[in-house]
Amino acid sequence: MSSPSPALAYRLEAARAVVHDASRLAMSMRPPPGGPVATQKSAQDWLTETDGAVEAFIASRMKTLFPEDGFQGEEGGVARSGQLRWVVDPIDGTSNYARGRSRWCVSLGLLDGDEPVAGVIEAPALNEVYTALRGAGAFLNGKPIHASPVKDPASAMIEMGWSNRVPKPVFMEKIDAIMKLGAMPRSGGSGALALADVACGRLDGYIEIVINLWDVAAALPLLAEAGARVSPFLRDGGLTGAATILAANPHIAETLSQAVNIPLA
Ligand code: IPD
Ligand code: CA
């Protein structure tokens, strides 16, 4: 394991504090069970007032702390460019958040060029904080995490993310392939938390046909440090927009990759 640069270690600590404060803000604005308090961007794609408020909060704090770093948000797009680039998803799992459910998070990742180097994902309603730094491991609430040891696909739990960006037959074909392996399919509504679940062994795999950079930026270093295998998301177009992702524990990754026809890196 190479030792992390002090500049990156410092950034991770700063990001953790900013994401924590942003999570408190999101909790203070959290709607009661049942909502709805969201507007619809497109079919089943939701936006709440909190998404904008949390992103503005994080953008302002990061500009003060690291004005030389690039910054990109789900809502505001690319505000600044830089070799180091922060990528924020202010609320991942907005559909859950808007209904008063607990499975949502604030996600902040750091890229060094085309390499994911650090990430913080906080799920305040679940009391969970994931952190990762290249070369220094991945952690859940301060404890090291690792991808699961499950080897038999018939004992595996695989999540597949859904959005209106993917035609129904394509989605159904992949779900069918997962079920033919004997695996248990799941869909939880937060791509970032599902990938974090792969990193900590709660899930054996996650697939999404088209997912945005901000949904996965913080999870990529978690997955790498936790020993999961991942498809080449950034190389496949994710660096500048959206791409397919497959992440899985190292024991079933090849089998899953072949079954759903999504190559690994
Ligand atoms: C969505 C969630 C969902 C995933 C979608 C994302 P949002 O993000 O992560 O699980 O399947 O692709 O767009 O809208 O909650 O920020
Ligand atoms: Ca998202």
What does this protein structure show overall?
GO terms for molecular function: inositol monophosphate 1-phosphatase activity; metal ion binding. Pfam families: Inositol_P (PF00459). Belongs to the inositol monophosphatase superfamily. Its cofactor is Mg(2+). The chain has helices spanning 6-28, 49-65, 94-98, 168-180, 191-200, 213-216, 219-225, 234-238, 253-260; strands at residues 39-42, 45-47, 70-73, 77-80, 84-92, 105-112, 115-123, 128-133, 137-140, 143-144, 157-160, 184-186, 205-212, 229-230, 242-248. The mean pLDDT is 95. It has 9 helices and 15 strands. The strands form 3 sheets. An 8-stranded mixed beta sheet has the order 4-3-5-6-7-8-9-10, with helices on both faces. A 5-stranded mixed beta sheet has the order 12-11-13-15-14, with helices on both faces. It has a two-stranded antiparallel sheet with strand order 1-2. The chain is an alpha+beta fold and 265 residues long. It folds into 2 domains: 6-144, Fructose-1,6-Bisphosphatase, Chain A, domain 1 (2-Layer Sandwich); 153-260, D-Maltodextrin-Binding Protein, domain 2 (3-Layer(aba) Sandwich). Bound molecules: D-MYO-inositol-1-phosphate (IPD) and calcium ion (CA). The site of D-MYO-inositol-1-phosphate has 15 residues, from strand 5, helix 3 and strand 13. D-MYO-inositol-1-phosphate binds at residues 89, 92-95, 161-163, 189-191, 208, 211-212, 215.
